[in-house]
Amino acid sequence: MNALDSQLREALREHAEWLTSRGRSGRRLLLEDADVSSLDFSALDLSEAELPGTRWDGCRCRGTMWPGANLASASFVRADLTQAQLAKANLDHAVLREARLHEAQALRASFYEADLRGATLQGADLRKAYLAQANLQGADLRDAQLETAILEGARLAGADLRGATGLRTVQATWVDLGEGEASQRIEGTELHAWLARASLHGPDEP
């Protein structure tokens, strides 16, 4: 435990009071550009917290509640967000490389230009999520719910979409299937045909 921990614990206590009192007492959690890497936040309620730029790399955040939280430009590299609650959270420009978001609840969450390379989103609820220009290269999206999700310009090379639902309702005029920094834009009927195949076959299958 480092010197920050006592301050952090008090800030978490005040946030819990702020939520319980509906803002009449306590204080909303603000951790802008803080580094809380490798700590355990599992099952904590961080709803509506202001956490832009915070580093959560390697953190254990199983079942953590972040509805409406501001996590823009935050870093979650290899963090465990299994069953995390992220409805309407702002994760624009966030870095979630190789993060575990198995069965995460991210209804209407925003991931604009987020880095989700190699992330596990198996069974995640991404209905109406904003994933425009997000990098999902190599991401595991098996059985994810993608009804009316926005994937405009998303990078999907190597993404596994087997069993994902709602692909016919995804909003996108084009996506990028280029590997690494290369670009391979597909759109129109080619895009719809690719999505239909991707729901049945893995990225390495013909």
Strand order of the largest sheet: 1-2
- Which radius of gyration do the C-alpha atoms yield? 18 Å
Terminal CA distance: 51 Å
Helix content: 10-25%
> How confident is the prediction overall: mean pLDDT?
95
- Regarding quaternary structure, what we see is single chain
**Class per helix and strand makeup:** little secondary structure
What's the number of helices? Answer: 2
Q: Which tags fit this structure?
A:
little secondary structure, 14% helix, single chain, elongated, two-stranded antiparallel sheet, 3% strand, 206 residues, 2 strands
Q: Could you explain the architecture of this structure?
A:
It is elongated and about 55 Å long. It has a two-stranded antiparallel sheet with strand order 1-2. It has helices at 3-20, 188-198; strands spanning 174-176, 185-187. By secondary structure, the protein is low in regular secondary structure. It is built from 2 helices and 2 strands. The relative contact order is 0.08.
Entry summary:
By secondary structure, the protein is largely without helices or strands.
